[in-house]
Fold this sequence. Notes:
The chain contains 15 helices and 23 strands.
Amino acid sequence: MLNKYPLWKNLLVSAVVLLGIIYALPNLFPDDYAVQISGSSASVSVDETLLDRAQEALDEADIDYRDPSMDDGAVMLRFDSSDAQLRARSRLQEALGSEYVSALSLAATTPDWLRSIGATPMNLGLDLRGGVHFLMQVDMEAAVDRRLDVYASEIKRQLREERIRYRGGDAEEGQLEFVFPSESARDDAASLVSSEYDQFRSNTRSDGEDYILELTLNQQSASEIRDYALNQNLTTLRNRVNELGVAEPLIQQQGSDRIVVQLPGVQDTAEAKRVLGSTANLEFRLEARSDASSARTETFPFRNNPNRTAELERDVIITGDNVADANQSFDENGQPQVNITLDGPGGSMMQDVTRDAVGRQLGVLFIEHSSEEVERQVDGETVTERVRETERSIISLATIRSTLGSNFRVTGLENVAEASELALLLRAGALAAPIYFVEERTIGPSLGQQNIESGINSVILGFILVALTMLVIYKAFGLLANIALTVNLTLLVGAMSVLGATLTLPGIAGIVLTVGMAVDANVLIFERIKEELREGLPVQSAINAGFSRAFVSIFDANVTTFLVAGILFAVGTGPVKGFAVTLLIGILTSMFTALMVSRAIVNVTIGGRSDLKALSI
């Protein structure tokens, strides 16, 4: 019989529409305005006492709040308006001090029964939900100095193996300077360096009884180091953001030495800055022997007890760059530890060194690079300079019981939060050069709410205009098209929620475009039906021919648009990709609603009626 779906097809269409409605429902539950209170560092604890202090501060300021709770190691307080939220954030920051960070946030209100089946609202981009924007500067000179330190360590080791006596060898002002007791020793060292390292320009000179070899990086090598530092920092920052679980972040290069990071939905700037900007790394060194010369040893304090010190060898066995994986756990005493897995070269180096060091102690150095801007007077003018500092402290000093390989553990950490953060940083990789924050902006949810309201209003206005046009032109079938259009928008929202796609302001523009494209398919079908009726076909035959013969035109038009949207998604970034995502999903849902849902509604209402002599079209 014409215009009748089999039962299975009706059930399929009904199931798809029902699932679309269910997974679109969470978007009807708007997030609450909230303030999240967390520690300014991983070592600062957040507990019920802090929650009581926060509530007391708000009560004194006569600021209404509701649903105080502890959520993922942070205090969460909800408010009824953005004004109350902003006043509360200011009051809490003042009352709690710099030890804690009070950040604007949005708290989900989706019912538990929806969350239990994985139904959550769409992810919103930076322009809608708010978040943080950072502009970060890569310290290129520090990158060159750190590479020089590595070269210096390698050259020193080779000089000792060749039994060439020397002094110095530390990196200063972009070059290495070695001092030798004789001209022949200097010449032997110069030959060794020139044969092994083509990165340096060498210069020899004498100063009394000292024979000096100066090594300066050539321009090409310095440029390669800077490029590597920038690219490696980009990779490391992306890894760290992935560990944070932020949806649709933007991390890209700006200029020759800057990186832009945008994190939608992240309101806790303290956590974001701590994880992104941390230059923490590890070095593994043997404890110095009692008879070792002072030139080959260094003294460091312990991190948890600065009054206690230990001497370690200057030679570094491996660094955090050799870590392939790291995770936090607990030792046999219930204390936090980090389990480390080394890469191939790192494991081999650790095995070679510790094989002959059983019974000696292995020190783990925690290294933190920092920088700050200072002002000083030069010729009567104020000049701003960035001063770099490096802090090294021992977090673990343990006896080597047997040869170590690729797997071992680091203990001596203060708490679980510090262990988790160290494991995260080691997994994500160390920064090739220190970075510091040039610009920082927090985009609050109030601005995002304005964008959302403007976007929703544009969709509603577009929907109303299209719906009225279809009713005027196609009458009853126009109503059918409007029902299909409503289902299409529901499926689009549900699909984006299920797939975890991120909605941005350009994405809303894609939804508005989808509204127009969705009825375009119905227009093709209805016009074909009218043409078949003019040719004298019976009503049911005209309906069947209209849906069947319009399919090719609809498919061709949507395939070309789908390919263009796919290209935009593949090569575009940021706003372009957000537009492409909604357009791609919208094309699929509009074809389904135009060809399947519309046809199903027609089949149920008038399909198979042999007494039907005319259509309201």
